[in-house]
Amino acid sequence: xxxxxxxxxxxxxxxxxxxxxxxxxxxxxxxxxxxxxxxxxxxxxxxxxxxxxxxxxxxxxxxxxxxxxxxxxxxxxxxxxxxxxxxxxxxxxxxxxxxxxxxxxxxxxxxxxxxxxxxxxxxxxxxxxxxxxxxxxxxxxxxxxxxxxxxxxxxxxxxxxxxxxxxxxxxxxxxxxxxxxxxxxxxxxxxxxxxxxxxxxxxxxxxxxxxxxxxxxxxxxx
Amino acid sequence: xxxxxxxxxxxxxxxxxxxxxxxxxxxxxxxxxxxxxxxxxxxxxxxxxxxxxxxxxxxxxxxxxxxxxxxxxxxxxxxxxxxxxxxxxxxxxxxxxxxxxxxxxxxxxxxxxxxxxxxxxxxxxxxxxxxxxxxxxxxxxxxxxxxxxxxxxxxxxxxxxxxxxxxxxxxxxxxxxxxxxxxxxxxxxxxxxxxxxxxxxxxxxxxxxxxxxxxxxxxxxxxxxxxxxxxxxxxxxxxxxxxxxxxxxxxxxxxxxxxxxxxxxxxx
Lengths: 222, 268
Description:
By secondary structure, chain A is mainly alpha-helical. Chain A is 77% helix and 0% strand. Chain A has a single domain, classed as MetI-like fold.
């Protein structure tokens, strides 16, 4: 099969139309995973064991089953439409990874910060909002960014449930014209153009994250 | 003989009372049947080897550690318990919050909030816990930062200050909350020797104003002698000796205390 430039230019605008859906699905799913991920992390920390263990079990279950299977299952089990199904399933799936990231951020806040909050009589909610999360989240922003890119690259899965993102469009073009090379290559190219700058930006954030003022506490001298 | 002396004085008001307080971590008993009254405005220094239970005494008062048994009262109210129909029940978070507000604490490692400016370190709790307006809180914070000599550092971050300065901010941050009892947990132990003096001076200043009750854990014997009305020597989870600084530091009775103090003399 030889590459046909004329054909590539002809179909490019049509594939580009799917970018909005791809990006929209990515950010919707990511917003869900950021919110739900935090909720899962907080639920897992509860001292009420039955609840925290149940949550841990659910997280494990979601993580060990393929997202594609989850997509099909939710698509056929609930009548929510392809886009909403896609955003929710990917969002829930990634929330289990994101919750792990939150957990590492929260664990990195020293116990002494919790104690200082108590000595100033902050309520538990105030302690989380004013003291713990503002210190837990900046260091994990690069890790969260990585998950955003991975999630972005996973959106072609949504083709399985007929979301008209780029990959879906490319496949329909292929089915109509029997030419797959150009449309698939174009999709890959668009993904590259969008995700590479993001990856660079995250690497920049990673380099900077060691330099947040006061993020490192002095070692304990006994 | 101390009892006689106490009876002759005008009635003093007890602000902190430990009743048969025990604390164990697993099988390790760190505090054995503590009974202690601290009077309003009194400055009590706690000395003793590490592991003797002195830190546990003040951490239980700050509600950072729960007693294994016994009760603690502050200003006439139970700290870890709540009276329901004349019976003592474990306190809930709401009760703890109400009572905890009477207590403030300064830590060995300062524990400032690294992501907040010095000013915000000192105003966040008064605004959100005491409900002061921003202006009121700032005014009060500035007053206290002046007292510790750091009113020119309000816009800086903790990491930009020396250890001694950070500890003075921590003292100001605690003072802004106007606690009735202030706890100092080896507040100079993490400091470089040349920075110890500035922090101790600040504490002496506050102590000399009189009103605030203080419990101080310290290894600075000269400081304990200058500031404290009473010194407690803790050993193996018990108050082994207690009395005026003169009684305890200048005139130790037990061999344990003598050898403990001897370590400091030889260090100087």
